[in-house]
Amino acid sequence: MEKEHQIFGIRAIIEAIQAGKEVDKVFIQKEISGELMKDLMKVMKRANINFSYVPVEKLNRLTPNNHQGAVATISPIGFIELEHLVESTIESGSKPLFLILDQISDARNFGAIIRTAECTGVNGIIVQKAGSAPVNGDTVKTSAGAVFNVPICKVEHIKDAIFYLQGSGIKTVAATEKTDQNIYDIALNEPVAIIMGSEDRGINPSVLKIVDEKAKLPMFGSIGSLNVSVACGAFLYEAVRQRS
To answer: Nearest 5°: phi and psi at 76?
Structure first.
């Protein structure tokens, strides 16, 4: 974690959250208590900020300073509201191409996906606040700086975002092996949002139930699955091919 992207100390984190800083995640020392910690918990829950309990050794590795049992990661970018992203994309006259990431948790995979998204003209990336990879130093580095060029939305629930996109005339396509339909048989040369699932579980079954279409990549090897950033690249470049 890059030092300029972190805050240490309970009161400093509380003040950062209340000031509207883009706090991605807070690491809290296990078995720590006290009134100030209770205040932090209240503020985090009110702002719906991810947190996890960790051993004190992890906090000591994150910062040499007096962390008081809490270290927060700060996003180096600002996030955009979903409604604003959709409206501005439609108003610009471009044919919308969005990417929805259903709880992809690895920062390097996230960065690689952002890089490919920037290269393929994706109008915006939509992630869920809870369970998604942070935008940290690893993300910035792996994206080769593309993270500063692609709008990113954080939403409370992926399903609500899908309903909003569908209501805005945007087709939702899930990348999943749980279908007989091939990616090359799906129309991607229209307003579309492609949904990619997490590294270990894929797309949530409740999300799969509400998408417009499902598609898979043909697989000929014995492994049966691709790294999510590679699969995402294949889907996005098929969209590029159709739109050319």
So the answer is: -80, 0
